[in-house]
Structure formats: structure tokens, C-alpha cells
# Entry
Amino acid sequence: MSGITHFFSRIKPFNLIGFALISLWLKTAFLSIVGFNLHLESFLDLLLILFNPIGSLMIVVGFSFYFSREVKPSAVMLAMGFATGLLYGDLLYFRFYSDFVTVPILFQFNNVGGIGPSTFELMSAWDFLLVADLLLVGWLVKKKWIYPPKVSKRWKFSYMGLSTVLLLVTVGLGLLKSPYLFTESYDREQLVKSIGPFNYHLYDIAMEATVPFTKILANKSDTEASVNYTQSRKGTDSDLFGVADGKNVVLISMESTQNFVINQKINGEEITPFLNTFIKDSFYFSQIYDQTAQGKTSDSEFMIDTGLYPLASGSAFVRTTDNRYKSMPHILKKKEDYYAAVFHGNDRTFWNRELMYDTLGYDRYFSKRDFDVTEENSVNYGLKDIPFFEQSISYLEKLPQPFYTRLIMLTNHFPFLLEEEDQLIPEASTSEDVVNRYVTTVRYQDEAIKKFFDRVKESGMYEDTVFVLYGDHYGISEKYEKGVFELLGQEDHPLNHVNLQQVPLIIHVPGEEGRLIETLGGEIDIRQTILHLLGIHTSDNLSFGHNLFSRQKDHPVIFRDGDFVTEEYVFIDNVCYDKRSQSSVSDTLCEPYKQTVRKELDMSDDIIYGDLLRFVE
Ligand code: GP9
Ligand code: MN
# Structure
């Protein structure tokens, strides 16, 4: 008997530590496969997911006794709480963004919704199970069914040694599986899948720490590669060059608007009756992809103004206000002294706009403080679109002309809330409430745009203005996409998911006949397209975008995580698909495009992190 007691007393430290490790390991593996929906391409992927958190979890749990002579249950529970908190934060973020948190995102927490209706919408009662093991361990300790005695120095060292070896093996296996793992670190799914969520966070922190040195060490010669590359791409001219020469430019950022809503009916009613008519008298680009990343709305603004890709991590608006850019306001001022302004019914500081608009050369930012914002005329993130446009028009009429302006809409924002009096069509009836509400907020948005055009025509500005309407990014994240598939009668297929990343782009030049343009493109191409219409030669301006009236067919549309779309293929989640057969094909068919993708993303990052445009005339 005493032998048995002796045996249990020896393994007791393992009991508590073992309990913590096994429960955390189960949670991490479960969340990786189910919560983070990591795509498993092979059995090796599954093995990696199961293996990769072990080393890092041992290290995290080890902090409960590294610096003390005994294992304190409260310290073990603290370590468990820390790891669980991190996982839960990742889960909530992933549920909406289908992405993983990065260090810069933590510094712009308010911009990703903070703690508000959006966050609560993402929570589920089942989430409570994530802390069940913490409660259980507390109860077991209280009952004295597991309690840890002192651990020897030797035991500690063996534990540390084993966890370090496991960590190194994890990294080695990850590299063996994907040799570009760290050079393509913008592909966060690949990173998490290969090295696990905890190691991913450690890597992310380490990388962030090196960023300031990139700028310090950069010099003029670093600009040569990108200048040569972007100038070597010859765009062909079109008959539309200069048709809007000297006109005002009004950009309308349609919040969270995906292209599937155009010409789509719910119970016999159009979701966007105004836009459906408007596109007939406009250049309607029906195959434009959302290329934003963690900076959401601000990323779309950044691409349109600078022609550079957004950052893979965090928002360029938040991180690079000290940089030099050659933005749309700068170019247009040089050409014809355009007055540049932005209108947005939210706080000046949201997405760091106040500072970034200065950097981008804007003369005026009409933000929340310039509008009459009351509880009655606001919903969700702020001023409703109809009063926003009504009030903006009075400012717009007084601006010096020609002007370059952007009006940022807000009502159609997740979680898509609307008072009954503003609901112009009934909600849809899919299994996803978010999607059901979405159609009503898009319908409201459409009404606001219609009213805006009525007022613009009354004001006499219409004839002298070119209007650019675009969806800033997706509204329905992957989590709720099922509802959209139900609505459209489509199956849940990776290629249908990619199609849903299309956002409408509508360019209206009064007097020009409308055209449906099915050219493949992305938001990064908007800048060159506008410049082309305004009669400005685009080759003079360093940009990764193409003029959509003559975009090369074989150039991929590049997403920030390294995925891409071409005329024939789609590369997503590390699988190459043939668009015609809708099935996966050999990776070699996508390989040639991957080089272009890597090159452009790297060059764009080098320009931003190195602040290289300060060296370009
Ligand atoms: C808020 C608006 C919406 O200012 O830009 O935010 P986002 O779509 O980026 O979450
Ligand atoms: Mn947005």
C-alpha cells in the first residue's frame, strides 16, 4: 500500500501539470481544427496540428514553477487562464475576420470594433466550455484530489529541455513542409497550421520588434527594383483616356458591400434597386476583388490613394503616418490644384484618419464633429447614411472646385443593425441572422445613394463630376457565408467563396454611355483607372495597380495573404483550382503566378516599411 501511495506522491506534480497540459492541448487542437477551420490538405497537416502546440504549451505552463520551489495550483491556473484567454481572443477575432491577431492589431483595438455589439454577436454560449477545465481543476485542487508537492531541480531542467527540443522540432517540421513558411509569413493560416497558434504569436512579436530598423537602414538604391518593375509594365491606352479631364471626383465607399447584392432579389424585391439602374449608365466592373487586410475600410482607402498593397499585419493608416507617399491628392494637386477632402460620420481618430489624411495630402476632413449627430439619426457605428449624405452635400457644394473627395458610408456595417422605420424590405430568411439583416442594411444604403444623387443633380454639380462607387470589403465573413449560399442557391465550394470576395465598382461619368466591364481586377486598380479617365499618364506614378480599361489578362489579382485569382486559376488555402473544371489541379499550373505575387507583395512591403518613396522624385 505504501508503495502505491509513494508512487502517486511521485507523479503528483505531473498530475496537475499533466492535467493542465492535456486539457490545453485538447483545446488547442480542437480549436485549430474546428474553431480556426484550418484547412487540412493531408494527414501530415493533421499530425502537425496535433504536435505543434505541445512544446509551447509546456513552456507556458512551466512558468508556474520555473521561478519557485514548488508548483502552486494558483500559478498553474493562471498559466491555463492565460493560454485559454489567448486562444479565445484568437477565436473571436477569427470568427469575424477568418484571420489571426497580430501585434499591431492590439494597438488599434478600437478600430476592430473594440468590445461592442460586434463582439457580443461573435460569442456563443458554448464558449463557456473553454473554461470548464479551469473550474474543474480548481475543484479538484480544493478537494485535494490533485495537489502538487515540490519539484526537483533535475525535473525542472528535464522539463525545460524537453519543451525546447519539442519547440525546435515543431519549427523544423514546419519548414520541411513549407520551405517558404517564414518568407511568406503574410500567409498566417499557413504559419498557424505549421507551428501552432502560440508559436505564431511569438514569431509575430519577434518580427514586429525588427520593423523600426528597416526604415533606418533603407537608402535610395532600395527603390530601384520597384521603380524599374512598375515602369517596365506597359499599359495600353484606351479611347477613354482623359474623358473626365478636369472634373471633380467623388468616391463613395459603400460599407461592406459585396457584389452578389447587385441585381439580386429577395422575395421578389431588389436589394439594390437604385444601383441596378445606375450601373446601366455607368462603367460597371463586375469582377473586382476585395484586397483589403486587417485595416479593413482604411486599407481600401490606402490602396485607392497610394496604389500600394495594404500591410499584411495591422493597418498602414495606423502604422505609417510618418511615411512619405505620392497619393491621389498629391498627384491631382500637381496637375490642377484639386481640393482634397474626406467625409465620414465617425470619430476623427478612427483608423487614425486624422493623422493619415494629413500625410496623404488632404485639405479637410469632415468627421463626426462637423456633423449633427444625435441618438435619433445614428445607428451601430454612427451617423446613418441618409442624414450623412444630406449634411455632406451642404459642405460639398461649398468646396473649391475641382475637388477630389471621398464619402465613407457606415450604416451597412456588421452586425447590420437597423431600426424598423428604415427597413425598406423584409429580412431574408436564411439560417444566418447576420445575412438576413444584411440585405436590409444594403437596401437602406441603396436608398441613401439614390437620395444623394437626387441632391447632387439639384445642386448643379452633377455634370462636372465623375463618381466612383465601390464596396470597401466583404460584409459577410466566412463564418456566416452559409446564409449567402442559401440565398444564392450555391454550394459551399472554395471557388464560390472566392467569388463572394468580389465588390462592386461603378464609375459614372455623366454623358458617357454605360458598359459592363468583366475585366478581372482588384481595388488596387482603382487609382490607375481614375487617373486614366482624368487624362493623367499612369506610368509616371509608382503603383502596383493597372488601368482597368486595359488591364493585362494574365496578371493575377493578388490577395494580401498570398492567394490570387487569374483568368484560369484560383490559388486559395494553398490549393490551385482550375476555374472551368472547378476542381483542384497540379500546383505547377499556379507556380508561375506565385513568383509575381511574392515579388509584388515584397516590393510593396519594402516601400512601406522602408519609407522608400522619400527617395523617389
Ligand atoms: C469606421 C468605418 C468602418 O470608421 O471605417 O470600419 P471598418 O469597416 O473598417 O470596420
Ligand atoms: Mn468598412
Summary: The mean pLDDT is 92.
